[in-house]
Structures are given as C-alpha cells and as structure tokens.
Amino acid sequence: MVNKSKFHISKMDCSSEEQLIKMKLEHLDDIKSLEFDIPNRELIAYHNGQVEPILTSLESLNLNTKLVSTEQSEMILETEAHGKERKMLLTVLIINVSFFAIEIITGFIANSIGLVADSLDMLADGIVYGLALFAVGGTVIRKKNIAKFAGYFQIILAIIGFTEVVRRFIGIEKIPDFQTMIIVSIFALIANIICLYLLQKGKSKEAHMQASMIFTSNDVIINTGVITAGLLVNWFNSSYPDLIIGAIVFIIVARGAYRILQLAK
C-alpha cells in the first residue's frame, strides 16, 4: 500500500514546468511515481510517508500549489526506464537548441527583437530539458550546480534583451522584416508541437490530451504572438508590435530563470 496524493497546480501549463517539478521532487526518497495532467493542472504523487514534505517542495516553486486529497492506493507502480527518458529528453533538447540558433541568427538579420526574444525562450526550455537530462541517474548536487549557472546566465540574457527593447523604443530603428518573422515563427511553432507530443506520448495516447497540451502551452502562445506581431508590423509599418512582444517574452524568460534558480536552493 502507498499513499496517493493529488495536487492542483494552477500555474503548471507546459512541459518545461513539469520537468522543473520532477527535478524539485527527485530528492524525496518516499516518492514512488508521479503522474501529470497538465491540461487540468493536476499532479498525482504516489509515495510513502507524509505528504507535507512534497507539498512544501512544490510550494517553493511558486506555482500556486494546493493539496486536493490524500488516500491509500493499492496501485502497482512501474519505474520508468532511464534509457527511454534520456532519449526523449535529448531529442527535445536538440530541437530547442537548434531553433534557438536559427531564431537568434534570423532575428538579428531581420532586425526583429521578437525573434531574438523567442530564441531565448527556446534556449530557456532547452536549459530545463538539459538539466532534466543531467538529473536522470545523476546526483542532486551536480543538478543544482548546473541549475544555478543556467539560471543566472538566463537572467543576464533577459536583462540585456530588455535593455535592447528600451533602446529601440527610444531610438529610431529600421522596420523588422515581417516575412522572416512570420516564416521562422511558424517553423518554431511546429517544433514546439513536436516537442510537446514527444514529452506527452509516453503518458497518454489519447488525442484529446495531446491537443489540450498543445493549446495550453506558453511556447505556442509566444510563437503565435510573434507571428501576430509580424502581421502588425506589416499593417502599421511600425516596429512597435515587434518591440512589445519582445518585451513580454523577455519577462517570461526572466520568470523561467527565477524558477530554475529555485532548484539550486
């Protein structure tokens, strides 16, 4: 018999936050298995002992966590194979890092701060998946050291990016290439959908779960925002829509960096 505790986590809306939660809880030996339902913002933890240490760890991530219920369960738990998990994480890591490179290069070429900001969001996700990859079968100390470095590095990039947004608002800048913004963002959107599918297919084969996961993802919203900004740049012949979406994404990147740093504590 094990305990089955259900949590509602209102700010858990994408797979990168799922990875953050996994890494945050990995030091708790009493946890036997975790089940994530991201569309409904729910986490089920199968564990021995008391639920309080799990709740405390989740609350430290500032994702608005509430304990819904705790009961005993006779469910037979299976441990996920490390090899399969490593392969999945490596795949999504490669996709995110590749599109980080593509977007930051095309962002500078197209003079689009929105694409540059989106590239840093892809890098942020890549960092999370990379940390999770190192954590599979690894030590907690190694994960925390990497998390601390990655978090501070990401914050520095976000500050530099936001400073550039302010500079462009004040100065006179060339209008971004809206076609490049739209085309590259569409490919980035496809890449994020592939990542979300890979991350979720091992947990649920049902199509509605996959669709819910895709449309509740922050990454998809950001990609759509950059596409919309590209259209507005063309319609209004102004760089302001690009700068506005860039500022929003840099704030999101900084928030993600803060969450990563929570893992280093």
Task: Give an overview of the whole structure.
By secondary structure, this protein is an alpha+beta fold. It has helices spanning 15-25, 52-59, 82-109, 113-135, 140-170, 178-200, 207-215, 218-236, 240-263; strands at 2-9, 31-37, 42-47, 65-73. Strands 2-3-1-4 form a four-stranded antiparallel sheet, with helices on one face. Strand 2 (31-37) and strand 3 (42-47) form a beta hairpin. Mean pLDDT is 81; it is low at 77-81 and 204-216.
Primary descriptors:
265 residues; alpha+beta; four-stranded antiparallel beta sheet; 4 strands; 66% helix
Distance between the termini: 32 Å
Helix tally equals: 9
Oligomer: single chain
- Major pleated sheet: 4 strands, antiparallel
Rounded to an integer in angstroms, the radius of gyration calculated over CA atoms is 19 Å
Instruction: Specify the structural class.
Output: alpha+beta
Mean pLDDT: 81
Secondary structure elements and pairings:
Blueprint: E1 2-9, H1 15-25, E2 31-37, E3 42-47, H2 52-59, E4 65-73, H3 82-109, H4 113-135, H5 140-170, H6 178-200, H7 207-215, H8 218-236, H9 240-263
Antiparallel strand pairs: 1-3, 1-4, 2-3
Helix pairs in contact: 1-4, 3-4, 3-6, 4-5, 4-8, 4-9, 5-9, 6-7, 6-8, 8-9
Q: What would you say about this model in short?
A:
By secondary structure, this protein is of the alpha+beta class. The chain has helices at 15-25, 52-59, 82-109, 113-135, 140-170, 178-200, 207-215, 218-236, 240-263; strands at residues 2-9, 31-37, 42-47, 65-73.
